[in-house]
Amino acid sequence: LVKIALFLLLLICFVSLLDRILANGTDNHKYLFRDFYDAPADEVDVVYMGPSSAGWSWNPAVAYHENGVGSQLLTSERLPADAFPYLLKEAALKRPKLYIIDAEQLLGSLSGDFAAVQSVLINLRRSANRQDAASDMLENYSKEEQQVRYLPLLYFHNRWKEVSRRDFEPVDYDFMGFSLRSVQGSELPQGREQLEAPPQELSQ
């Protein structure tokens, strides 16, 4: 019985590790979500939710340095609007004083983009809220795609040839969720001048 229990424990750990490596692919939002879950609740004043562009536009470290605001990002690739109720429940775990939602996403379509849906689901930690989100957002997808609901590894199991350094360590989103590409310089419109610009008043 001890050997069987030990074997099952090792198997669960191995499958869990494979799930984390293969399921996320090159979606480095996984590091952003991990930062959110690891952050002490008393250090999170604001949670900003939206698509990946939020990670190019909001820099939590600079916000804290200049204004003393402790913030976290909950963003993912082309985040669908129907993910917001579930992200709000996740954000509530940290008891923030303010929730910011990218309202532009509310003008878009709901879960019609599987890549966007999976980007949310594979990064949420396992919970009743994640299962509710999966049931809602995967309702109109194929049985194969719905495997992401239970064990993402079942859907991503054949991604071995694509595994690279990005699967094991942050590349772009290793600055509390902020994309360092916008500082290093690239074809993206954001750049260092964004960080040096004077504070702007937020419109209603």
List keywords for this structure.
204 residues; mainly alpha; three-stranded parallel β-sheet; 10 helices; globular
Protein described:
There is one protein chain. The chain is mostly helical. Helix content is 42%, strand content 8%. Strands 2-1-3 form a 3-stranded parallel sheet, sandwiched between helices. The longest helix has 23 residues, at 2-24. It starts with a helix and ends in an 8-residue tail after the last helix.
Task: Provide a quick synopsis of the model.
The chain is mainly alpha-helical and 204 residues long. Helices cover 42% and strands 8% of the residues. The protein has ten helices and three strands.
Estimate the mean pLDDT confidence.
76
Biggest sheet record: 3 strands, parallel
Strand content: 5-15%
Could you tell me how far the N terminus lies from the C terminus, measured between alpha carbons in angstroms? Answer: 63 Å
Helix count equals 10
Task: Supply Rg.
Answer: 18 Å
Q: How are the elements arranged and paired?
A:
Layout: H1 2-24, H2 29-38, E1 46-51, H3 54-57, H4 60-67, E2 71-76, H5 84-91, E3 98-101, H6 114-121, H7 128-137, H8 152-156, H9 181-184, H10 192-196
Parallel strand pairs: 1-2, 1-3
